[in-house]
Write a structure and sequence with these properties.
By secondary structure, the chain is mainly alpha-helical. It is built from 7 helices and 4 strands.
């Protein structure tokens, strides 16, 4: 829960910078929003829910294509999720407009999604940690250890 809250706050800051600060000081005007700060927080919530509910399903379905393209299709998936966020925001009367696809949208996706992912990684939920043999281990470490064990077993089978 803490990760979602931190991610939402960071995404709101990214939306604010993307829609309010960058257009004033640069020629970066591909994403526009003409609302107040509460609306930006609502946009961040919509973006978090779309990424949390629909994102994993789309990423799982696109896994074979992701292997072939070495993960580059992830940019298109995130861009599509940002477009879906804009469509939902329009339906809820929040005036979020996204620029031309693909060059503008891919840049906007990177500016919005990357800070949120970084914040979720830095501020992981402490409840996802557990103690194994006296050592505090989080979910990422458990997955990494599991992956290493699988690699070792595969090497043993080959030998």
């Amino acid at each position: 829960m803490r990760g979602f809250i931190v991610g939402t706050i960071v995404t709101a800051i990214a939306f604010f910078v993307l829609t309010q600060v960058l257009p004033k000081y640069t020629s970066f005007d591909m994403v526009s929003y003409d609302g107040d700060l509460i609306g930006i927080v609502v946009l961040a919530l919509i973006f978090g829910v779309v990424n949390g509910l629909i994102g994993p399903i789309v990423r799982a379905l696109a896994l074979p294509i992701s292997f072939v393209t070495l993960g580059l299709v992830g940019f298109l998936i995130n861009a599509g999720l940002l477009l879906l966020t804009a469509a939902i925001a329009q339906a809820l009367s929040f005036d979020l407009k996204i620029g031309d696809f693909p060059p503008d949208l891919l840049t906007a996706d990177t500016l919005v999604a990357a800070p949120a992912r970084l914040a979720r990684h830095l501020f992981r939920d402490p409840e996802s940690r557990e103690e194994i043999r006296g050592e505090v281990v989080d979910a990422h470490t458990r997955r990494e250890r599991h992956r290493l064990r699988l690699q070792q077993r595969a090497l043993q089978c080959i030998q």
